[in-house]
Amino acid sequence: MVSLTTPVCEFGRKAPDFDLLGVDGKRYTLADVRGPKGLLVMFICNHCPYVKAVRSRIIRDARDLAAQGIGVVAINSNDASQYPEDSFEAMKQVAAEYGYPFPYLYDETQAVARAYGAVCTPDFFGFNADLELQYRGRLDASRKETAPEDARRELYEAMVEIARTGRGPAEQIPSMGCSIKWKNEGA
Q1: Looking at the DSSP assignment, which residues form a beta bridge with residue 125?
Q2: What mean pLDDT, rounded, does the chain reach?
Q3: Is the pLDDT of residue 98 over 50?
Q4: Whole-model pTM?
Q5: Which of 80, 118, 152, 168 lies 20 to 30 angstroms, CA to CA, from 161?
Q6: What is the pLDDT of residues 5-16, one digit of tens each?
Q7: Which pLDDT score is estimated for 5?
């Protein structure tokens, strides 16, 4: 398992569009998932210990952000042939088991992860109402272990600021996680 950190936020970068299949059998585009005040795009998967450590917090924050007018979507781009835990069928099971309150989409070709520049799971992209990137940081201080219950909700606070002002915080701490499992890695 390779552990990576995300690059610095490219403020103002436009959100790339997509058309992906969700675990509910519906197809979703950028227009389908954006909220009136912004959008959080999360690259996650099922098997990564970094994602598992914050899964309940991702769900909590997604619910809280929806109330702030922020759309939330999760995308799994991992190579399921090498990581069967990240298969579309397994995604359906995990989304049902944990009651994901957001669309969980499968990026089978990995084109969406490449378009966004995603590097790890979890990787968070926070966009304003104009779909301009304003946040590329971590959820909170969690790593492979869940941070203490009173840890600052960095992602949530940043997205609330974006909903209110259209701008993300100048200071952002990169997210850390397992590398995205690219097809033909090393080729």
Answers
A1: 41
A2: 95
A3: yes
A4: 0.96
A5: 118
A6: 888 899 999 999
A7: 81
**Tokens in use for 40?**
């959080």
- Rounded CA separation 96/110 (Å): 23
The number of CA neighbours under 13 Å toward the Cβ of 82 is 11
What residue spans define the domains of the chain?
3-179
Amino acid in position 175: S
∠ Cα 160 174 139 (to 5°)? 45
Strands (E) across 3-160 are located at 3-5, 19-22, 27-29, 38-43, 70-76, 104-106, 120-121, 123-127, 133-135
Please check whether residue 122 is in contact with residue 58, taking contact to mean a CB–CB distance below 8 angstroms: yes
CATH code assigned to 3-179: 3.40.30.10
**Range 43-60 average pLDDT:** 97
CA 67 to chain CA centroid, Å, is 18
